[in-house]
Amino acid sequence: MTVTVPNLDPADVEALGAELDRIRAEVLDERGADDARYIRTVIAAQRGLETGGRVALAVSLFPPAWVAGTAMLATAKILENMEIGHNVLHGQWDWMRDPAIHSTTWEWDFLTTAAAWKHTHNHLHHTWTNVVGRDRDLGYTIFRMSADQRWHPVHLVQPFYNLALAPVFEWGIALYDLEADAVPAGRKTPRALLRDVAGLVGKAGRQLAKDYLLFPLLAGPSALPCLLGNLAANTTRNIWAHTIIFCGHFPDGVQTFTEEQLDDESRAQWYLRQIQGSANIEGSTLFHILSGNLSHQIEHHLFPDLPSNRYARIAPTVRKLCEKYDLPYVTGSLGKQYAATWRRILRYALPGR
């Protein structure tokens, strides 16, 4: 659904942009020891959970050890993926000048390579958020999520392949990040595609060997339950990531845009598009951490390079700004946003506007 904000004149938009710039500048000036302590604490917790999970799965012939090990490993993978990896790759912690937590050196526990993710996500998605024909994340090239996207008969089954995508989400993202569809369109050379395929094969090989060969072999008699525990942990992480990402981008109320609306777009207008093209998910502090603070998707899209622990603090201010300028601030519980996302998937599976 392409929606405009008729009651907001250009001067109001620029004033909104100036206020958002001030929020960003204040956070940049305040970053310091507390923020560094936060991310190092999360990393330490994640590594402790992963170590505990691996050890428990090494003796997982005992069912309680399997349950505990799988739960710890799944939680560790969610933390590594969402609150650490995604945010480190955005450069949120580059200001610390720590090569161990830097966007140029981090390689995450996910099939797609860091370099491919930074291109398709950081650059393409965050630049062209919800612009039909420019933001490939709007439907990930296989879903129809806007009336401005052309309908094809295959979209009739998009509810079914959405269900199938969730447990193998990392595989879907890895294939999507190859941008194979850009080769016929002339936006990518076959040589570049082959290079990216080689990178994915190498990364996937290391990931599969680690979780489904190395650690099961080290588990000896517990090899099979260890392997199944790793599979369950990866599947849980995939479903969780799929849920959070879809609920932050596709619920009812999240708007899409045409390329024509971007003519001479200013920074303030870019801010406005981020607000209109994102949705938040309400929950506890633990929920926000496990979501990578992408439950504050509006704040993340406004300020993708600010430390994620700051989003909860600035969210009330951003919400008040939206109220001041009579802008929608799409938010709700996980259940509400999940249901709204499914309504959108079902609605646009059918032809028509």
Number of structurally distinct domains:
1
Strand order, biggest sheet? 1-2
Strand content: under 5%
Q: Runs with pLDDT <50, length 5+? A: none
Secondary structure tally: strands: 2
Major sheet attributes:
2 strands, parallel
* Helix content estimate: 55-70%
* General shape: globular
Tell me, rounded to a whole number, the average pLDDT.
95
Oligomer: single chain
Sheet/helix structural class:
mainly alpha
Using the CA coordinates, give the radius of gyration.
21 Å
Number of helices: 13
Q: What is the CA-CA span between the terminal residues?
A: 8 Å
Secondary structure elements and pairings:
Layout: H1 10-30, H2 33-58, H3 63-89, H4 114-127, H5 158-165, H6 169-176, H7 190-218, H8 223-249, H9 267-276, E1 280-282, H10 285-290, H11 297-302, H12 311-324, E2 331-333, H13 334-347
Parallel strand pairs: 1-2
Protein name: Fatty acid desaturase family protein
Domain Fatty acid desaturase: 65-331
Pfam family, one: FA_desaturase
